[in-house]
Amino acid sequence: MGVALRDILGEFCQEMELDDVRGAVGIDAFNALYQFLTIIRQPDGTPLMDAEGRVTSHLSGLFFRNINFLEKGIRPVYVFDGAPPELKSTTVEKRREVREAAGVRWQEAIACGDTAEAYKQARASTRIDDAMIASGRRLLEFMGIPWVQAPSEGEAQAAYMAQKGDVSTAASQDYDSLLFGAPHLLRNLTISGKRKMRGRQVTVRPESVSLAAVLGGLGLTREELVEVGILVGTDFNPGIRGVGAKTALKIVKKGGFAETIREKTPDFDPEPVRSFFLDPPITDDYHLAWKSPDREGIVAMLCGEYSFSEERVEAALDRLGKTAGQKTLDAWF
Description:
single chain; Rossmann fold; seven-stranded mixed beta sheet; two-stranded antiparallel sheet
C-alpha cells in the first residue's frame, strides 16, 4: 500500500523511457513479485501454473522482464523483505483479511461465470508464499542477478544502498522509498510497457522522482516529509481520518504536526514511526556481482521443472546472448 502522497508528489514524477534507465537498480523484490503475480493471469484470474499446479506467474515475470533489463544495460539487484516490524502488524493482518475475502469472491464469480469480476477479485487475492520466494531467488541466481536479504523492509535497504552509491536508484511503486531516504525513486520499472487498464490499452512508462527535487519544491526537510506521511497514514500507522496529502503538507509547513497529533490522535506516539523511517534496520552484509547467465540451469529449471516453453526460453536467452556479444562478458556483467 505504501503512503498516499501522489497528490503532492505528482509534479515531481518525471516520465522516461525504459531505454533511458541505466546502471544498477535496487528493486523492491516483494513489490515486483506482487506485480508479476497480479498482472500475469488468465482471463478468469487464474495465475500461470505448471503441470503440477504450482504457480509460475512470478517466474515468468522475473525471467522475461530481467532479460529485457539486461538487454538494455540495466543491472537489477532484488532486495527482499526481512521480518516485518511490530509497527506493521495491523497492516499485515488487514492485508491478509482482504486477500482471503477476495479469494472467496473470486471463486463465487467463477461459479457465476462472471469472468470480469473473477479477474478483479483474483488480482486482489494475490499472495506471496515461501515457495515463490525460494524459486524466485533460485532463478535470479541462475540468471546471474544478485539479490540482497534485508533485515526488515526491503525499501529501506534499497534506499540505503542508493545512498551509498551501490545502486543508482531504488525501484518500487511506493513512495515510502523517499521517506526512507532514497536519493532517487524509480516507479513503474517492472510494469512498464503496454498494459490493459480499465478496459483500454495504455503505455506505462517508468517515472523518476528525485528526493532533492521533492524537498526543494515543497520546502520541506526529509524529517518534515516523514511527518506528512505520518499524518496521511503509512504501513506503520493509520493516519488521521480526513487528512490527505495536501492538508498534511499545509499542517506541517505551518509547524502544526505535534499539535494536530495531540488533538486528533492523543493516544498515538509518532516517534517510533518517525524513527523507523529515519533510522531503519539495514545491513552492509551484501556483495553485488552480476554474472553470466547459466543457460543450462535456466532451461533445466524453467522448462524441465516448471513446464515453460523451451522454445520461448531459448529465444529469450538467444536475444541476451546477441546483446552481450557486442561486449566482452566481463564488460557486460
